[in-house]
Specification:
Methyltransferase, Cobalt-precorrin-4 Transmethylase, Domain 2, 2 domains, 266 residues, 5-stranded mixed sheet, 10 strands, binds S-adenosylmethionine
C-alpha cells in the first residue's frame, strides 16, 4: 500500500546553470530522499545539492518502467522523490506518461516549473523574442524525426508565419531544417543563432543566417544539446533604429500611467 506521506516532484532544473534553478527546485532537491535526474541534459552540479544519504540516480539508461518502479517503491516507503528534468518539464519533458502512472497508483505529485533552455538562450543572445512590428509570436517546435509531426506542424508549415521560431531536438538535421525554413516563410538572409549547452561551462553561440548556419554548425561539430533560434529577433543589429514597444514610451497612456503630454508635462 502507498504511504500517504510520500510524494513525487517533477522538477524543472533549468538549462544547466545551478543559479538558474528556482528556489523551490533547489529546496526540493535539497530535501528529497530519492533524486532521479535526466543525466543526459542535467549536469551533476544540479544534484550536488542533494542531502547526505539521498539516493541519486541518473535516468539516461533507464526505461520508463524502471523509472516508475523506483518512484512508486520509494513513495510507498513514504519517501520524497524528485524527478529532475532539464529546462521546463512542460516542453518535450515526456511527463505525460509518468503522470498517468502516478495517477493510476494514487500517488501525490506536483510539477515545479523551470527556466526553459529557450529563454536561457534568448538571454545569452541578448534578444527579445517578441519584437514590435517584426515578430509578436514565438513558435517552439522541432524537426520531424523518429517522432512524426501532427498534420500542419511540419517545419515548412510553421515557417510560413515568418515569426520567431525556437527549434528543439533538431541540430543533427540542420541542413534539412534550413531547407524546410527557406522553402516557406524565411529568406536566406534571415538571422539564425544556434546555442549549444546554454548554462554549461562549454556553452557556445553560433550566429549566422539561413544561408551559412548549417556550414557553421558542421564546422563547430555540434551534434547535440543545442537550440536553433530563427527570425529577426535574433538579429544583433535590431536595436539600431528599429521599432520599439510603446509600453514605456513617455507619450503612451495606459492603465497605470498617463502620457507625459496628457499629464501636462510634455
Ligand atoms: C528533451 S528536450 C528538453 C527541453 C527542456 N524541457 C527545456 O525546456 O529546455 C531536449 C532539447 O532541448 C534543448 N536543450 C535542452 N537543454 C539545453 C541547453 N542547456 N542548451 C541548449 N539546448 C538545450 C536541445 O534542443 C535538446 O535537444
Amino acid at each position: 500500500m502507498t504511504d500517504t506521506t510520500g510524494k513525487v516532484y517533477i522538477v524543472g532544473a533549468g538549462p544547466g546553470d545551478p543559479e538558474l534553478l528556482t528556489l523551490k527546485a533547489k529546496r526540493i532537491i535539497e530535501s528529497a530522499d530519492v533524486i532521479i535526474f535526466a543525466d543526459s541534459l542535467v549536469p551533476p552540479e544540479i544534484v550536488a545539492f542533494a542531502k547526505e544519504g539521498a539516493q541519486v540516480v541518473g535516468s539516461k539508461e533507464l526505461n520508463l518502467d524502471e523509472i516508475m518502479d523506483l518512484e512508486l517503491s520509494s513513495v510507498s516507503e513514504g519517501k520524497i522523490v524528485a524527478r529532475v528534468q532539464s529546462g521546463d518539464p512542460a516542453i518535450y519533458g515526456a511527463i505525460l506518461e509518468q503522470m498517468r502512472i502516478l495517477e493510476e497508483n494514487d500517488v501525490d505529485f506536483e510539477i515545479v516549473p523551470g527556466v526553459s533552455a529557450a529563454f536561457a538562450a534568448a538571454a545569452v543572445l541578448k534578444s527579445e523574442l517578441t519584437v514590435p512590428e517584426k515578430a509578436q509570436t514565438i513558435i517552439m517546435t522541432r524537426m520531424e524525426g523518429r517522432v512524426a509531426m501532427p498534420e500542419g506542424e511540419q517545419l515548412r508549415d510553421l515557417a510560413s508565419h515568418g515569426c520567431t521560431m525556437v527549434i528543439f531536438l533538431s541540430i543533427t538535421r540542420m541542413t534539412k531544417v534550413v531547407r524546410e525554413l527557406t522553402s516557406s516563410g524565411y529568406t536566406e538572409d534571415t538571422p539564425v543563432a544556434v546555442v549549444y549547452r546554454v548554462g554549461w561551462s562549454d556553452e557556445l553561440v553560433i550566429r549566422g543566417t539561413l544561408k551559412d548556419i548549417a556550414a557553421k554548425v558542421r564546422a563547430a561539430k555540434i551534434t547535440l544539446q543545442a537550440l536553433i533560434i530563427v527570425g529577426d529577433a535574433v538579429d544583433p543589429g535590431l536595436d539600431k533604429g528599429g521599432a520599439v514597444s510603446h509600453l514605456y514610451s513617455a507619450d503612451y497612456t495606459h492603465r497605470y500611467r498617463k502620457a507625459a503630454s496628457v499629464n501636462g508635462k510634455g
